[in-house]
Amino acid sequence: MAAVKDAVLERAVDLAREVALEIAEEPEYVGEYLGAVREAERLVSHRFACTARGYRGWAWTVTVARVPRGRTATVCEAELLPGEDAVLAKPWVPWSERLRPGDIGPGDVLPFRADDPRLEPGFTPTGDPEIDEVAIDELALARVRVLSPQGRAEAAQRWYRGSRGPATPGAVASAAACWSCGFLVPLQGSLGQLFAVCANEWSPDDGKVVSLDHGCGAHSETDSEPVASEWPAPEPLFDELAIDVVERTDGAETRAEAEATAPTAEPAVDVTATTDTATTDTATTDTATTDTATMDTATTDTAPTESGATDTGTTDADGRPADEA
């Protein structure tokens, strides 16, 4: 139901302007009159343009009212309100909902949240050495609050879907996964079943949590593939005039130096071979002498006589016939 026209309140423009000038920091910030708006019965708002910088589309709004059968307007409230084309800030959201990763800078401190669903009470020592050793030393639960199942699940989803999960371009292009890399440092607890920390200074993920099926080009067990050159391989060049001087790193002599510095040994005399040679020569001489004697004897025995008959007479020791002797 539309409000009934109220002449008393609609004529209170000057009263509304005086109030607008009072609440404005500077008088020039109050601009032209924009009209009146009937809010309800005996309730009217007068609007004036705001000329202050940064408040385009805003208006000074002064609301006046009167009692029944009254003839005097009374100011109810005055404020600066935005219009339809006003520049507005984003709707206010609590910090716990609008906070994003990376918003916390050096020196910033978040307020304490006693009802954080990502945390739950930590472990209280029981006095049993076996139970306390596992909970405190191995699982590190001796804190006021630790991660709850919801906190672990949210962290696992965030890490796995982030820039160090298995779906990143670097992980897809890698030749091997992080689980087989020697630079991987495992995590404790349930998160260690899926995540670990990279400890390779050459990796882009050094010091960060990575999934076990993540990967990069700095894997400890992979190698780069040789790339063929577009230029022909030149023939090797050998410099035969240069001499490379190499200093010996140890005190051991080389084989060549050992042979050069070794004393010269006298040639061994083969006594057996010499003896055999002398024996052979002696035997040969004796045989030759015997043969000569035989030949002389044969010549003497077969010498012909003048008559052509062979003399078969006996000779003396000097080789003459016995008759002449």
TrEMBL record:
Pfam families in alphabetical order: DUF3027
Q: Which InterPro entries match?
A: DUF3027
Region annotated Disordered sits at: 251-325
Query: In which residue ranges is the amino acid composition biased (Low complexity)?
Result: 259-316
- What protein name does the entry list? DUF3027 domain-containing protein
